[in-house]
Design a protein that fits this description.
GO terms for molecular function: ATP binding; protein kinase activity. The protein is built from 4 helices and 8 strands. The chain is α+β, with helices and mostly antiparallel strands and about 140 residues long.
């Protein structure tokens, strides 16, 4: 796929998640954002699918305060799971955003989230830092 098509898919996916979190009434936490749950129509328009693990976002309590998370058993797909959600069992809209970020990395790199014991997030993070170190070293030696 061309870069512009990949960007189109990424933006469409982000719009879908934004709708779930901000415009759906009540808002929805998807809980299993991954590449296979982003369907494409014949024009490559992204559609968020598979709401089997989704949860409704919390509503206001008796004092009108809206909790920021749901405490729940961790569900989702390894490689896409938000580490904070995995550790705390607190599901938030940020958990979906993290998973969407993994999908974006897949679109950009063509890598799977977990492959041959390597995690795409860690690999991209390490590569980015190595490039920064190299640039900094070259600049300081010039």
């Amino acid at each position: 796929l061309s870069f512009s098509k990949r960007l189109h898919i990424a933006l469409g996916s982000a719009r879908g998640i934004l709708y779930l979190h901000s415009e759906a009434n009540p808002p929805i936490f998807h809980r299993d954002i991954k590449a296979s749950n982003i369907l494409l129509d014949f024009k490559f328009v992204a559609k968020v699918a598979d709401f089997g693990l989704s949860r409704l976002a919390p509503g206001p309590d008796t004092e009108g305060i809206i909790p920021r998370h749901i405490s729940t058993v961790v569900k989702g797909t390894p490689g896409y799971l938000d580490p904070e959600y995995f550790l705390t069992h607190k599901l938030t809209d940020r958990s979906d955003v993290y998973s969407l970020g993994v999908v974006f990395l897949e679109l950009l790199t063509g890598m799977r989230p977990i492959s041959h014991g390597k995690n795409i997030v860690r690999e991209v993070h390490d590569c980015f830092h190595n490039v920064l170190k190299k640039l900094f070293l070259e600049e300081s030696l010039a």
